[in-house]
């Protein structure tokens, strides 16, 4: 008896049908969209801080520039940069400048002047002797006139003339003495001008000592060797590195948000303790500075007064680079979302929440934001809550799209 033909055909085509169904299932699985691998962060409750982070440098709050009070020659200083000094210590020593050299022509001219002045002195001395003789003669005549007047042999007018003549001789003698002194001074001046220059003395005789006005350290030496200096020329600078301030340049748009008294934390570098301080002054003049990207920016200097330096910051000095964290405002116990999770949707902001393997869009209202987190208003109906996992850097991911968390990366 022959088997049923339909049963035979079914047994023959069943494997082929199963193979076709398997291939269709594999094709569907292959063409089905894969879930995107994403990073996630966490919505938290904490402290939100709006701040400005910029770099600046330290500088002395009180600097004293020691200058030469007169034209002189500076004796080689013994102090070095970093040496400590006390108020009243001698920090610089000046001595008189050596006279200038005289060439042969000027020497001959000065020699002739010496001869001329010496002749004038001799003439003044001879004139003085003549006046002394005249005075002696008037004194003798006065004595005779007084004797004759006492015996009534001459008239009173004759005695008066003798007295006046003696006074005139005395005044002429005084004038002659003054002329002789003037001639001697002129001769001495000419001899001094003729004197050739001599090497400066190596000692400190007739030296002028300059003392430190305050306790501090030498922070700069303008001259490290002996040399002639002019009046008012800076010699060295002294300051106290324990009393310093920081100068930080910020964008002019950020400077408008600052106010004196803002709290500041300054970091001198890796491993160094943080320095605390506050903004004391915001300069009203901006300047142009080219950024590392070649962009011209308008910046304003902000002066930060630092608290007393701690023991671990003793090796800091003027001009050292620092990173400043200037606090503009802060709020406690607010809802925070990572800034990397924000997504712009029209006029509103959204975040994508990771829920059951899919991305779910949630609208959020931003109060303020900084580089790390955004402060959002809690929304009971369509927002997010503390503890929600949100997608970081969502890019083109849309609502309802399948996603999976990147392996080996924890929540942020």
Report on the architecture of this protein:
The chain is α+β, with helices and mostly antiparallel strands. The protein folds into 4 domains: 88 residues, conserved putative lor/sdh protein from methanococcus maripaludis s2 fold (Beta Barrel), CATH 2.40.420; 97 residues, Elongation Factor Tu (Ef-tu), domain 3 (Beta Barrel), CATH 2.40.30; 74 residues, RNA polymerase II/Efflux pump adaptor protein, barrel-sandwich hybrid domain (OB fold (Dihydrolipoamide Acetyltransferase, E2P), Beta Barrel), CATH 2.40.50; 91 residues. Helix content is 28%, strand content 37%. The strands form 4 sheets. A 6-stranded antiparallel β-barrel has the order 2-11-14-13-12-15. Strand 13 and strand 14 form a beta hairpin. It is rod-shaped, with a radius of gyration of 50 Å. The mean pLDDT is 83.
Features of the shown structure:
412 residues; alpha+beta; conserved putative lor/sdh protein from methanococcus maripaludis s2 fold; OB fold (Dihydrolipoamide Acetyltransferase, E2P); six-stranded antiparallel beta barrel; 21 strands; 28% helix; rod-shaped
